[in-house]
Structures are given as structure tokens and as C-alpha cells.
Amino acid sequence: DRNRIAYRQTATVNSTPPANAVYNESNFAETLAALNEIVSDFPESPVHEEAIYRLGLLHFRFAEDSTTPVEYRNQAVAYFDRIIANTESPLYYDALYQRGWVRLNSYDNEDLRLAMNDFLQILRAADAGLIANPALARDYRIDAVNNIAYCLIALDGTDFRTQSRGIAEIERIFADYENQQVIDEVLDLAAQNKYNMRAMLQSADFLRYRIDQYPLALQNPTMLDSMLVLYANSTSELRQGESLPQIVRATYRELVTDYNH
Q1: Which has the closest alpha carbon to 173: 125, 127, 114?
Q2: Which residue of 4, 14, 49, 53 shows the fewest CB atoms closer than 10 Å?
Q3: Single pTM value for the model
């Protein structure tokens, strides 16, 4: 780790790290041997699960520097699965979070969906007070919200024009989840992230979804106005059958009909 830290402190864009600054099995041979020995030979050790957890973390780091990252990510998930299988493990939520993080970083759509499942489970645990450390519960809640919002927008890949795939996914992921504040935070973050990517049409998709879900919300007129700004400033061609004058007329009609009171 010291070699890698030293490299990062002096690295320039597109520079290649020296061999001793790369996360791979060769550079961590002693660490791997020690952890594997604990796991295989000392099942009753008080650090047995900790060793499994550390192997998961290490294999994820191997994936980051590997030309075959899928293999290492799958191994990392397998290690975290072993801990998650024991719901009484003190590392249960740590492993659950890390498994979600590994899956998020694969950028595969099915992995993104599985990652959202993991982060939603953490949100449910935080809501129910099942994570004993309040500071950890708070941090995990914040990260889970951010990560679900990221997964929702990542489902679109490089398609910035068609309706965001995240809209349909919201229905699935939050189907029986009742914490409306969290759902609103996720929607706001997804819309903001799309805006930051200059994917204006898809940012508007998330605002439209929120308006449709809560038609009596006081902030809806403001969000409708924001949608007009997004459409007017979109660098992508509007979708088939849409034009800016048509969208403006429909939005003003909605404002007058639904919110003029």
C-alpha cells in the first residue's frame, strides 16, 4: 500500500504505475497466504470472518488494477456472500455494503440492479435501527442513497436521449419501501446527476416521475418550470413527436389547470 500511495502522490495523467504500486496477487502474496491460512485452517479463530472480509476487499482492489477484472470481482462477491450468509455476523452490513459496491463498479446492468437491492437492504436496516453504531448507520444511509441514485442513471450507459431506464427501475426497487423522504432524495440526486452530465431530457424524466407520483406536492409548479428550462437547454434532439413549442404549451396548460388555485 505504501508504494501505491507514493505513486498516487506523484502520478500524472495517463502515467503507468510501477510494478510494485499495482494491486495484484504477486505484490500481496504474503498477505493472501496469511489470510487464506486463517480462513482454511482456523475456522474457530476470532478473526476468521475478518479474514474472509479482508480477502473480499483485497480481491476487489485486484479487480481495479487487473486486465481480467470480472474474475476478481466475482471472487470478491463470493467472499462477501460467505459473511452475508450469517445474518448474525457483526460484519453482515459491512459485507452487504461492500458487495453492493463491487457490483456497482462492474457497470453491468444486472449487477447494477443487484447492487441497488443490497443498498436498499441497508436503507431498510438503517430505518429499522438494526445497525447498532448510529454514526455508521448514518454514513451507510447517505452512501446507499447516493449509490442507488448513481445506479439508476448508470443503467442508461451512453444513451442520453431516450427515456431513462432508471424510471422503470424506480418502480421495482421501491415497490414496497415506505420511507418517502429517502425516495425523494434518490429522485432529486438522479435528476441532478443527469443534469451534471448534460443529459437534460433524462433529468426531466426524473422530475416528471416525481410530479406524477405526488400531483399535489407544493413544489410541483417549480419543478414544471425547471423541466421547461431543461428542455430549452437540451443539446440532444427532442424525442420523436416532441417539439419545444408543444412542450411549453402543454406545461403552461398543466400549470393553469392543476395549480392555479
Answers
A1: 114
A2: 14
A3: 0.89
